[in-house]
Prior knowledge:
The complex is a heterodimer.
Chain A: H1 7-14, H2 20-28, H3 35-46, E1 53-58, E2 61-65, E3 71-75, E4 80-83, E5 93-97, H4 100-103, E6 119-124, E7 131-137, E8 147-149, H5 151-159
Antiparallel strand pairs in A: 1-2, 2-3, 3-4, 5-6, 6-7
Chain B: H1 22-36, H2 46-50, H3 52-73, H4 80-83, E1 88-93, E2 99-102, H5 109-122, H6 126-130, E3 136-139, H7 142-145, E4 151-160, E5 163-173, E6 202-206, E7 209-210, H8 212-221, H9 225-253, H10 255-280, E8 284-295, E9 309-320, E10 326-329, H11 345-358, H12 369-372, E11 374-377, H13 397-403, H14 405-418, E12 434-440, E13 446-450, H15 484-490, E14 493-501, E15 515-522, E16 527-533, E17 555-559, H16 563-568, H17 584-588, E18 592-596, E19 601-607, E20 611-615, H18 630-638, H19 647-651, E21 655-657, E22 663-665, H20 667-684, E23 686-687, H21 688-701, H22 706-718, H23 720-729
Parallel strand pairs in B: 10-11
Antiparallel strand pairs in B: 1-2, 1-5, 3-4, 3-6, 4-5, 6-7, 8-9, 9-10, 12-13, 12-16, 14-15, 15-20, 16-19, 17-18, 17-20, 21-22
Helix pairs in contact in B: 3-9, 5-11, 8-9, 9-10, 22-23
Protein name (chain B): Acetone carboxylase subunit alpha
GO biological process, one term (chain B): glutathione metabolic process
GO molecular function, one term (chain B): 5-oxoprolinase (ATP-hydrolyzing) activity
Amino acid sequence: MSVSHDINTLRELKDGKLSFEKLHGLISGFKDADRFDKMVQIWQESVEWDDPILLPLAEHLFVVRKPDGRRVVKSTWGYEYCEAQENWKLHAKVFVRDTEELINEIYPDKLGCDPEWMQLREYYDPLSGTLLEVEVVPPGYPIVHDFKPDIDTFYRDWLGRPVP
Amino acid sequence: MLNKVQAVDSRIENIGWEGKTLRQMLKESDDIFERTGHYQGLKDLKIRTGQPILYEKIFSHLRGGLVNARSTALNISASPIVKEIGELSFALYTPEGESVALSTGIIVHVHTMADAIKYMIRNNYEQNPGIAPGHVFCNNNSMIGDVHTADVHTLIPIFWENELIGWAGGVTHEIDVGGIQPGSMCYGHADRYGDGLLVSAELVGTNDLFHEDYLQRCRDNVRAEMYWVLDEKTRLTGCQLVREQVYRTIEEVGLDTYKAFIREAIEEGRRTLVGKVRQMGFPGEYEAPTFIDLPWKNDETVHPLARKDTMMHAPLRMKITGDGHLGLSFDGANQWDYHSFNCAPSPMQGAMWVQLTQTLWNSDKINDGAYYATSIELPKGSWCNPDYDKVSTTLTWFFLIPSFTGFVRSLARSYFARGYLEEISASYPCTWNLLQGGGINHFGKPSAFTNFEISCQGTGAAYVKDGEATCAAMWNPEGDMGEVETWEHLEPLLYLGRGRKANTSGAGKYRGGCGAESLRMLFKTESQILFSAGEGHVFASAGVFGGYPGNSGYRHNVHHSNMKELAANKAPYPTLDGDPENSAISALVKGDEVFDLNQMTGPHPFGEYDLYASVQRGGPGLGDPLERDPAAVAADVNGGELLERFAKPIYGVVLTRGADGRLAADVAATRAERAAMRQRRLERAVDAKDFVARERERVLAGNINAPVRAMYQSSMKLSSRWAAHFRTFWSLADDFSF
Lengths: 164, 738
C-alpha cells in the first residue's frame, strides 16, 4: 500500500511535537517509501551550512558531500570530523567517568558502575559541547564504531539512483 | 478429537508426505532452500496472490486457534508464573518443524521448539521411539532446543489419516525444576548435573495421555510438583486445542490447500522480513558490545570451579547487506565456564527472533520465515556456543539478555538513517533483580519459588518520548508484575512495600522508563535459601545518541534484623530502600547489614525477619540530557522519579520551589547553567587521540582489573579476528597478550 506523509507531520515528528494519536498512526500504519528524502530535506533545513546531506548518521551528525566530492561526517554546528567510513568518535572530544566521584555525578552511589569494571566515555561535539554518545565499556576496550554505513549500496541498489 | 487418528499408539512407517520419511522431507527442504533461496523453492505464492481472502482467512483461523488455546489452557495452570504473568505460548509447525503461526505470550520459544522438533527428526524418532497419532513429546534440554531447563515444551504430532501434517507445540515456565537448589533457574553449581530434571525430547505420552510413570518421575524430581504436573496438562490441552483448529481448518479448505498454505506462509514470512529490512534498515555494519559481571571470587555458596570474578563479553555486530539479509555476529565472545549462564545456539536464535517480533517485524504474522531471512554467527567454544555439552544452562538469560541490547540500538541507528524516527528505541534494560529461593515455607511445606516481578522493567526512551515505567520484559512483550498478594501466598516473604525507584531511568533528552523496587521480609519460615541476580559492577545495557544507561543494581539485605521488635513496638519501619545514599533500611533497621555491588549471588541462607531489597531496572535514555525539557525534569522530581540533587548535575536544570511546595524549572537560570555546563564539558574533555594514547599505556601496563583482563585474553584466544582488532586499535605488537 502506498503511503506518504505530509512534510509538516514529519517536522513535528522530528521535534517531538506530534500528538499521541498521530504518532500512534505513524507507528502502526504502513511505512512511507518517500520518508528518507523528506527527512533529509527536513534535516537540511535544520542546519545553517549548505553541504548537501547524504545520510543522517546519528543525532546531530550527518554524512555530507563536500564540494570536492569527499563524504564527511559533520555536526549540526558545522564541525567536520572525518571521512564517512572513519569513526567520528576518534575526532571528538572525550571525557571518561572512571572514578566513583565522577560516576556519582550522574548516578547515586550503588546505582552506577564500579570504575574498575566499567567506565562511561562521553563523546562531545568540539564546537558546541553537546553530548553525542555515551559508551559504557570496560577499561581498555577499543572505541566502538557504532555504524559504518554502506552509502553506495543504499543509493544505487535500494533507491535506484546514484549518490548525489 | 481422535477421529483423524487411524492407528493410535502404533508405529506408522514413512509418515511424511508422498510416502517420504520426515528426515527426507527435512533434508529436501534444506537443500531446496540452499539451491533456490526460497523456502521450499516457492517462487510464486499461488494462494496468496490468487485467493488472498482465502489465504488471510486460513491464517486467521490458525492464529485465532493458537491465541484461544493459550487463553483457555492457562486456566488449567495453578502457577502464578503461567496464570498471571502469562509465561506460556503455543505454535503450529510444518512436518519438518518450521513455525507457521504462533499465539501471543513468551514467543521466544517458538523457534526453540522448532529446533526440538528438528532434533527428533534428525535423530530418526520415526523409527525409535516412533512418531504416531496421540504421541506426546516433552523437551527442556537447551542443547536440543530450548532456552533453559525451566522452560518445558510439549510437542504433539498432528496426523491426517496416516500422514503427518504438522506439529503443535506449547511451552510454560516452571517455578521449580528440581535443581540442586530451589527455584526455576538455580545456579552456583558447576555443570549440568545440578540443573534439575532434564527431559530430552522424550516420548512421555501415548493416546493423548501422559504416561503415568513420566508424571511420577516429575513429581519425584521437582519441589513444586503440583505446578509442574498441572502445567504439563496445560500445555497438552493447548496443543490439543491447536490440533482441533487445524482439523477444522482442513475440513473447511481441504488438505491440499492447507498443505500449500503452510508452505506459502513461511515463504511469505521470509520475504516480509527481507522487505522490512530493505524498507526500514540501512546497509552497513553496526557494532554494539555489552558486558555483565559475575563477582563470585569470594562467594562461598558457589562451586569452587565457579568461585572467581568473571566478565561476560558480547561483542555484537550487525550487518545488513544489499540483498536485505540481516546477520548478527558474536565473534569475539569469551569462553563458556563452570556456571549456569552458558547459552546454547537455540536460545540465541530464539532471542534474535523475539527481538525481531518487537522491532522490525511487529506483526502477528511472524513465523520461521524470519529464520530463513537472517543469520547469526556464534563462535564455537564461547559462552554462546559451548563446545562442552554438559555445561549448566539453568540461567542462560543472565548472559543472553544483555547480549541482545545492542541489536535494538543498532536497529535504532538504522531507523534514524532512514527517517523512521517513531520506531527508535534506546533498547531495553535487563530484567532483574531476579529473586528465587526455597525452603520450608509458611505452610510448613518444602517449596520453591521464582518471583516474576522481573517481567516489568522500565522501557528504553524513544526518539520522541520517554520510556514507560515498570511494564515490560525483552522476553515477553506482555509483561505483568503479578499481584503482591499472589506472591505472598506463594513465597514466605511479606512485601513491606513495592514502588517506583528514583534515578533508575537512564538520563537523556528523553529518559528511560522508571524502574521499581520491592522490600521483602521473611515471615513464618525458619529459613530460606535466596538468590539475587543482576549486574552490579557494570551497566548491562546502554543509552543511545547521548543518553545514559539506566541503573545498575546492588545488594541490600539485613540478617538477624530487629523487625520483630519494631513491629511489636509499632515503631517506624522501611517500606522501600529509596535513595541508596540515604537508605531507609539503614536508617530504620538494625541487624547484620549487607550492602554492596555484589548483586549477583549464589544461594545464600536467610532467616525469619531478615530483609531483602529487590531493585529492578529503569530503561536507557536517548539524546543529550541538556536538551531535555526543563519542565519535564521538574515533573520527574515532583513525581519521585528523579532525586532533586541530580536535576542540576545531570540535566542542568535549576529548580525553584513554589508556594504549593512543588518544584518548577527556572528557565533563564537553566539556560545559563546549561551554557556553562557545555563549556565545562569541553574544558575537562580531551581530544580522542589523547585519550587513546593514555588508555594504550594502561593496556600495555596491564593496569586493568583481573576479570576484564581475563575477558580480553579469552576473546583473543577464541577469535583471531577479534585479537587482530584489539591489537590493531591499540597499536600493539602482533603477539601481544595480557
